[in-house]
Amino acid sequence: MMDVDLSVELAGIRLHNPVMPASGCFSYGREMSRWYDLSRLGAIVVKGTTLELRPGNPTPRVAETPSGMLNAIGLQNPGVDRVIAEELPALRQYGVPVIVNVAGSVVEEYVETARRLSGSRDVAALELNISCPNVRCGGMHFGTDPDMAAEVTAAVKAVSRVPVFVKLSPNVTDIVALAQAVERAGADGLSMINTLVGMRIDIERRRPILANFFGGLSGPAIKPVALRMIYEVSRVVRIPIIGMGGITSGEDAVEFFMAGASAVAVGTANFIKPTACVDILDELAAWCRNHGVRAVRELIGAAQKGWNQ
Amino acid sequence: MMDVDLSVELAGIRLHNPVMPASGCFSYGREMSRWYDLSRLGAIVVKGTTLELRPGNPTPRVAETPSGMLNAIGLQNPGVDRVIAEELPALRQYGVPVIVNVAGSVVEEYVETARRLSGSRDVAALELNISCPNVRCGGMHFGTDPDMAAEVTAAVKAVSRVPVFVKLSPNVTDIVALAQAVERAGADGLSMINTLVGMRIDIERRRPILANFFGGLSGPAIKPVALRMIYEVSRVVRIPIIGMGGITSGEDAVEFFMAGASAVAVGTANFIKPTACVDILDELAAWCRNHGVRAVRELIGAAQKGWNQ
Amino acid sequence: MMAQVVEQERLTRDVFRLWIEMEHDAPWSPGQFFHVRVGEGLDHVLRRPISLSEAVSDRRFALVYRVMGAGTRWLAGRRPGSALDVLGPLGRGFPLHPGDERVLVIGGGVGVPPLIQLAREVRRRGVEVAAVIGFREARDVMLVDELATLGPVHLLTEDGSAGMPGRVTDALGEDFLRGADRFYACGPSPMLQAVQGKLSGHLPGYLSLEERMGCGIGVCMGCVHPIRGGDGSPVYRRVCADGPVFPAEEVAFS
Amino acid sequence: MMAQVVEQERLTRDVFRLWIEMEHDAPWSPGQFFHVRVGEGLDHVLRRPISLSEAVSDRRFALVYRVMGAGTRWLAGRRPGSALDVLGPLGRGFPLHPGDERVLVIGGGVGVPPLIQLAREVRRRGVEVAAVIGFREARDVMLVDELATLGPVHLLTEDGSAGMPGRVTDALGEDFLRGADRFYACGPSPMLQAVQGKLSGHLPGYLSLEERMGCGIGVCMGCVHPIRGGDGSPVYRRVCADGPVFPAEEVAFS
Ligand SMILES: Cc1cc2nc3c(=O)[nH]c(=O)nc-3n(C[C@H](O)[C@H](O)[C@H](O)COP(=O)(O)OP(=O)(O)OC[C@H]3O[C@@H](n4cnc5c(N)ncnc54)[C@H](O)[C@@H]3O)c2cc1C
Ligand SMILES: Cc1cc2nc3c(=O)[nH]c(=O)nc-3n(C[C@H](O)[C@H](O)[C@H](O)COP(=O)(O)OP(=O)(O)OC[C@H]3O[C@@H](n4cnc5c(N)ncnc54)[C@H](O)[C@@H]3O)c2cc1C
Ligand SMILES: Cc1cc2nc3c(=O)[nH]c(=O)nc-3n(C[C@H](O)[C@H](O)[C@H](O)COP(=O)(O)O)c2cc1C
Ligand SMILES: Cc1cc2nc3c(=O)[nH]c(=O)nc-3n(C[C@H](O)[C@H](O)[C@H](O)COP(=O)(O)O)c2cc1C
Ligand code: FES
Ligand code: FES
């Protein structure tokens, strides 16, 4: 049986394999450790963390959609200091890089949260979630304006001692412009995609299902949008992309690599099956073996050459 | 058994019921007439029509995605003159308003196509498909820039003797800005949403499945995005909205009405079942009866009042 | 985890009892739930939480569910012998208190099923059980026999078409509560809120809550409910992992 | 339209023959196809086109398919008695020409099945049929018996593990073509192109094309193939409604 080299490098961080959970679908790992050995993961990506504790949104917070789901959790988290003190140390034992997803409402909040996190020995990289509404700009999202996205990226880069990934929102006219703006601002990598904004209506009660009205659409339904955006962006940036959006199988992961991702993150699929990440990893390895692929790295961008070539 | 009033009014056009096919999923009606009596439809919406014949894209033109599909037909159509001469007259016999979807690459093309169509007695309204790339602006889409969208709308309005609906693309940061721009430019109504741009990769062949690389994502997968956009837009515009995006059942149609649509169009569901439009109409009527709804009009925007109210 | 469907019984026009057999023994307690995968393919990405209603061994369980939407409709179509993908039992069930001599179980609609196994466990410990159960109308009534073998059952229907007319709280008079040590309630939110209103300060007890769930295993924060902490102020806690059962006095309703 | 699964036979490791019985009689001709709904729920919005392989009445048909992906895998799991949602027979099949005395049917892989009923219809009219069929290797070979009762069968495999080594075009020598009035070919695109290249100018015939389909009924323009019109220039025509069978000399390959 051929040995497949699953390792990838992301902004100087070597991952023993390219599969990790997506932020918000893994909490801080404690509960998942009951379902499998977390050291099998390529990296651990934890819940969106803010400077202060956030209670999150009222419920219902989740709704089902065809091949997908909506969530409006509202970033419930205990705040960065408790995350550093109480959550991250427990992840040391697994010996895999920990990436902390950082959220905020104003640039200073991102910066301060990032500064504190990057000072922790438990943090290997940051992932800036710039899909949150910027309270200063009337709730407009950092992630939809290239200038704002660049500003928050540069500010965080200035204080961070670890690599900074910027997580892009798909709810934009021109994802390439966003990606290029944050690359120029110093981002070490990109995570894409975050959720699409959607809604469902409870027709019996004649109101939105989610208490927050709108929520983020994730799961297999959004996979084609994620692949398209990764394909477009990876053509023009030089920084690596962590690909996500509807991955539920090893073949899905292969699709993301071929579109241009250097690693993959698994979100909603964890709700289908708690062992999704490691199952996908096993399927990916098996696929490579069956297809004579010696190193998963070889797949990155393989479909970029395109059609009829 | 209670009699449900299914009629709606769209920009002065009275429809005996609110269900119609979505453009491109019904060709010019001839084939569908073998599956059911087209006079049962609220309106007929035909394929995107251009000034000159268009051969369309190479194949593969379609691909399946979870709860959805991608298409890159490329507007194959015989050109406006043949449509007027050969296709539309056959639809007269059904006695329902015919809406012609108009596409183009430059403003003048839209205008001339619209002028010729609006001169035909067989055309009740136009639907401007502004998702096509504008060749003058380097392929940028009319549908993603409010100024360009307003310009093409105003130019078509100036020559059209029939109401003009503008079909909005969901691939934008701010759908509300687009909707308001075309409303100000004189649009009589909106159709939303067109497809999301997506892609799939054939991992065995290591290339995009579609010969065109990217395609438009439609079907149930996009329903939450469509509902969200209709909900947002219907709050701020006064013109009616034809809602579409993943409708496959009467309950789906109810969701769209409650989100703010005044009529619904059915696209991809026609491929699941040729009789989708009339089946959905029957289910909608049954739902209204079972819920004591005397007129489907009452449902329009019913979920706008929102949660906890 | 794969389980096998052993039996599918219809209890009322829209409620079914599904017997499943797990591949392996699973620790369980009354009040826990299973997170059940529904449908084939990727159409439904969310599992459905259904409470454990009865356990006849450490691997054979009954789930009683009402057909509400697509997922439970699919479930009702499963036939004996077919495989079912379930996670569980999950969550924290009803705590039993040594020293209790008489407890009340209070259930409404599909909140009744989880009380069956609870009442059995309580009886097994020699504790007396009285049940107060409410349904909309006569044709919704179910599981009375199962409870009647364990103690007195007070049945109510909203329209009076079976048992006494009224809601469960109407049966919770002072006389009735006398001598009771604790209550356990499961049912729709408005019922739980009414029970809490009626009994708080009179009788300690537990409420089993319902919220829409994502993961069911504590990682997504989808299923939270405001629960009063030590300082009395409500914080969102996870129904799936910290509950579904919480001490009644700690549950905040908005 | 609902049909019932009557039988599911395995022909090779990954090819199955599914017998279905339609609710009503349906007019059919060899070379037409069914558009088959796969899966439950909304996961798969596109039907799968599968050719009619055999017709034993106006409502009982055989479909022979290879398991390729999720849809055909699902199909292979259908058991006798279960319902199947099919549209069809759709499209335009193989035209038969009065006056023909000897025809060739040429098939590759799962392009062979549609030739069975075609060969039967041809034989029924007293026309001689010779079959040239190719497969990858011995374990893929199927349907030889069905064809052998109708006329000579020339079997080829790419690796020579059964029949002659080579591809179908290797059997289409001049000697072999002598006396033939027409050919009918079905198989993968490269095979059809090779057959066209070999036979054009020598023998008139038909090709049955494959394209990814949306609607299957002619409304979406998803399934087009370039077909030469009267002026010789190719225009996109619909495989589902104008085909899948086209006169060989009109088919353009890019
Ligand atoms: C801890 C817990 C235990 C439960 N135990 C039982 C039980 O024993 N018997 C029983 O009949 N019902 C029980 N329910 C409710 C049951 O989960 C829902 O009725 C069921 O999920 C509806 O699924 P559906 O696909 O039929 O409906 P749909 O409306 O199609 O479901 C769509 C989505 O909404 C969710 N949903 C809809 N209604 C509810 C609800 N009331 N509560 C939670 N999620 C909902 C579904 O899980 C799914 O994610 C329980 C709920 C919880 C939270
Ligand atoms: C007119 C016609 C007749 C056919 N007859 C037969 C037959 O008799 N026996 C047989 O085994 N196969 C036949 N095919 C091919 C068959 O349709 C595909 O193998 C099948 O659709 C694959 O579905 P899947 O879900 O297993 O694969 P997936 O790859 O999961 O399918 C995904 C999507 O791609 C489409 N697709 C994938 N491969 C093909 C293909 N080769 N041709 C067309 N669409 C494809 C599917 O229809 C579906 O929409 C025919 C195709 C056409 C166009
Ligand atoms: C319940 C839930 C919570 C999420 N929380 C976060 C978060 O805190 N920060 C973030 O950047 N993304 C968050 N996401 C987005 C995911 O990380 C991921 O980008 C998205 O869900 C697409 O991947 P998927 O389709 O595999 O789920 C969340 C998604 C879900 C479903
Ligand atoms: C095969 C296909 C062809 C389409 N062609 C057109 C078109 O010509 N013009 C247009 O405005 N929209 C076109 N659309 C978009 C649909 O009209 C509709 O907006 C979209 O598919 C969403 O609806 P649905 O999910 O019900 O399909 C097409 C969609 C499909 C699937
Ligand atoms: S359902 Fe995910 S935390 Fe409870
Ligand atoms: S598949 Fe739609 S036109 Fe042929």
From TrEMBL, chains A, B:
Cofactor(s) the protein needs: FMN
Metabolic or biological pathway: Pyrimidine metabolism; UMP biosynthesis via de novo pathway; orotate from (S)-dihydroorotate (NAD(+) route): step 1/1
An annotated Gene Ontology molecular function: dihydroorotate dehydrogenase (NAD+) activity
Gene3D superfamilies listed in its UniProt record: Aldolase class I
Signal peptide stretch: none
EC number: 1.3.-.-
Gene Ontology, cellular component aspect: cytoplasm
Subcellular location(s) of the protein: Cytoplasm
Subunit structure: Heterotetramer of 2 PyrK and 2 PyrD type B subunits.
Function: Catalyzes the conversion of dihydroorotate to orotate with NAD(+) as electron acceptor.
Family designation: Belongs to the dihydroorotate dehydrogenase family. Type 1 subfamily.
Name of this protein: Dihydroorotate dehydrogenase
Source organism per UniProt: Kyrpidia tusciae (strain DSM 2912 / NBRC 15312 / T2) (Bacillus tusciae)
Lineage of the organism: Bacteria, Bacillati, Bacillota, Bacilli, Bacillales
Gene that encodes it: pyrD
From TrEMBL, chains C, D:
Cofactor comment: Binds 1 [2Fe-2S] cluster per subunit. Binds 1 FAD per subunit.
Coiled-coil region: none
PROSITE patterns: FAD_FR (PS51384)
Family matches, as InterPro entries: Cyt_c3_hydrogenase_gsu, Dihydroorotate_DH_ele_sf, Dihydroorotate_DH_Fe-S-bd, Dihydroorotate_DHASE_ETsu, FAD-bd_FR_type, FNR_nucleotide-bd, OxRdtase_FAD/NAD-bd, PyrK_electron_transfer
GO biological process entries: 'de novo' UMP biosynthetic process
Keyword hit for Flavoprotein: yes
Biochemical pathway: Pyrimidine metabolism; UMP biosynthesis via de novo pathway; orotate from (S)-dihydroorotate (NAD(+) route): step 1/1
Assembly description: Heterotetramer of 2 PyrK and 2 PyrD type B subunits.
Record's protein name: Dihydroorotate dehydrogenase B (NAD(+)), electron transfer subunit
Lineage of origin: Bacteria, Bacillati, Bacillota, Bacilli, Bacillales
GO molecular function term, any single one: oxidoreductase activity
Described purpose of this protein according to its UniProt entry: Responsible for channeling the electrons from the oxidation of dihydroorotate from the FMN redox center in the PyrD type B subunit to the ultimate electron acceptor NAD(+).
Domain FAD-binding FR-type: 1-96
Keyword Ribosomal protein: no
Obligatory cofactor(s): [2Fe-2S] cluster; FAD
Binding site for [2Fe-2S] cluster: C215, C220, C223, C240
Family: Belongs to the PyrK family.
Originating organism: Kyrpidia tusciae (strain DSM 2912 / NBRC 15312 / T2) (Bacillus tusciae)
Residues reported to bind FAD: R48, P49, I50, S51, V64, Y65, R66, G71, T72
